[in-house]
Amino acid sequence: MHFPKFEYQRPTSVEEAVQMLKEYGSRAHLVAGGTDLYPRMKYNLVRPEVVISLKGVPVKPPAIEGGGLHVDALMTLVDVARSQVILERIPLLAEAALNVGSNQIRHMGTLGGNLCLENRCTYYNQSHTFQYVEPCFKRDGDRCYLIPKGKKCQAVFMADTVPALICMDAKVEIQSETKSRQLPVEGLYTGDPLSPLALSEGEIVSGVIIPNSASIHGSGFIKFSLRGGMEFGAVTVAVLLHAADDGRTCDSARIVVGSVAARPVRTLKAETTLAGQELSDKLLREVAKKVATEIRPVMHHGYSAPFLRECLEVHAFRTLTLATKNIRRD
Amino acid sequence: MKRLIELSINGERHELAVEPQTTLIEVLREQLGLTGTKEACGTGECGSCTVLIDGKPILSCLTLAMDCCEQHIVTIEGIAEGDQLTSVQQAFLDCGAIQCGFCTPGMVLSITALLERNSRPSETDIKKALEGHLCRCTGYNKIMEAVKKAAEHMAAKDS
Q1: Alpha-carbon Rg for chain A in angstroms
Q2: Facing A35 at nearest CB: one of B44, B129, B130
Q3: Rounded mean pLDDT of chain A?
Q4: pLDDT in tens, A149-190
Q5: Kindly report the CA angle at A258 between A323 and A121, in degrees rounded to 5?
Q6: How far is A286 from chain B (nearest CA, A)?
Q7: At a CB cut-off of 8 Å and minimum separation 6, what does A241 contact?
Q8: Does any CB of chain A come closer than 8 Å to the CB of residue B129?
């Protein structure tokens, strides 16, 4: 499958990249690994005149600075999954990175690229060359094929590293030509499937900053899909539990779910149920039920909403159990 | 507008005229006649276009030729030494892990990279390494056997 024609630029620094972004404006698209943008370009879903390849920008190794860990957005997912410092300090992120795509995709795709992953839908993400139907909402049309009488787009958020980052209270660092800003990772997601990222023209995601965790904590990550590999999730659950000194009582919790809505979802009511409680099997089952009722999953990729709801309960319970088992003192 | 680039492929340097949108797989197959690397899906899901770039398994259908200038590319044609097949290639033959052979070059290269890094892979390690490779013929069992056999053979050679 051939690409349409485009121009190519290869900056050697983030500063040069944002200058080029400013110069080319909406005619250009940044690309790091290419595992998300390039398939969409081959399907003619996005048509940049200029591709700004970030493969010439040096990648900074993870750095501990000011009470937190700074991870470069250009780090490949396989390097995130294998990084000693990430495995020691934030195993949840390494686990999430290991679940993305395939081995080859993890060698090419970057953390920043995963954060900026476009929302997905089985109708949208395919070739439309031989279809003689009106385009859907996400292709600038006026209808949805997933839900025929639907009045809005239902494309779903699918990035696996993001639920893990939100659990860790991570911040994302965004740079433009004139300034640098930081915001909580969840603030990057608009919830609008047509424009899922809260990024302005000329901005680049340059890194994430993960604050140090409380000393006694456990985390778990489960991505459920039919094949179990090289697949986007049906439901993806990330859990972080902060425990008291006894290692059995929960101080606070974070439960973040991906793949079921237009953005990652934190289940605040379920999290509150855990606070101050002993982490018994019975409690975890109760919390898992709450997760499944607190979220209204959007049907996607052939999975019905009721089925996704059942999956949520099962996998929330399994992830909570995993996180409880993983509680350790740092 | 074509640009002249130099790529290192299987240890040889090639001067090539490419456009920005020319993929690495187009260069390999159409300009260099190295048709061992296959293209099926063109969108990174099947793994048949896998090559090794600086030792890492990479999808050549999603790689621009112009992004590969300072890198060492190895294709399936580049791993055997003359007529001497590698342990991985031999194991695939011995275990009957090849039917139509279309997925094989990509699989062999991913496994070559795996065993280079980890000479005693667990079942999970092998599955993770082959996660991005689809095979429509074999049902994967014989491929798993071949990988284990290749790992054993390489471990025996090293000891």
Answers
A1: 20
A2: B44
A3: 96
A4: 889 999 999 999 999 999 999 999 999 999 999 999 999 999
A5: 155
A6: 32
A7: A217, A218, A219, A250, A252, A253, A274, A279, A320, A323, A324, A327
A8: yes
What is the complex's ipTM, to 2 decimals? Answer: 0.97
Q: Work out the angle at residue B85's Cα, subtended by the Cα atoms of residues B80 and B88, and round it to the nearest 5 degrees.
A: 100
| Interface test with chain B among A49, A103, A230, by most B beta carbons within 10 Å | A103
Q: What is d(CA A239, CA A262) in angstroms, rounded to the nearest whole number? A: 20
Q: Where are the domains of chain B?
A: 3-77, 87-158
Nearest-CA residue of chain B relative to A125?
A: B43
Q: Give first-to-last CA distance, chain A, whole Å.
A: 50
Q: Is B42 on the interface with A (CB under 8 A)?
A: yes
Nearest to B128 among A1, A4, A103 (CB): A103
Separation CA A115–CA B126 (nearest Å): 27
CATH topology of domain B3-77: Ubiquitin-like (UB roll) (3.10.20)
User: Which amino acid, residue B111?
Assistant: I
* Residue of chain B minimizing CA distance to A9: B20
Choosing among B23, B58, B60, B67, which should be mutated to test the A contact, i.e. which has the most A CBs within 10 A?
Answer: B67
Overall fold of domain B87-158:
DNA polymerase; domain 1 (1.10.150)
Comparing B3-77 with B87-158, is the CATH topology the same? no
Instruction: Determine phi and psi for A241, rounding to 5 degrees.
Output: -115, 125
Is B110 in Cβ contact with A104 (below 8 Å)? Answer: yes
**Burial class (CB within 10 angstroms; exposed 0-12, middle 13-18, buried 19+) of A88:** exposed
Contact between A141 and A128 under an 8 Å Cβ cutoff? The reply is no
Instruction: Give the pLDDT score at A299.
Output: 94
For A216, the token pair is 């006694």
> Residue A265: how many CB atoms within 10 A of its CB?
24
Task: Give residue for tokens 């090419």.
Answer: A108
Q: Is the pLDDT of residue B19 over 80?
A: yes
Give the DSSP letter string of A240-308.
EEEE-TTSSBEEEEEEEEESSSSS-EE-HHHHHHHTT-B--HHHHHHHHHHHHHH--PPPBTTB-HHHH
Q: How near does any CA of chain B get to the CA of A32, in Å?
A: 11
Contact A2 B66 (CB under 8 A): no
Other Cβ atoms less than 10 A from the Cβ of B15: the count is: 8
Domains in chain A, ordered, with CATH? 64-117+156-211 (3.30.465.10), 216-329 (3.30.390.50)
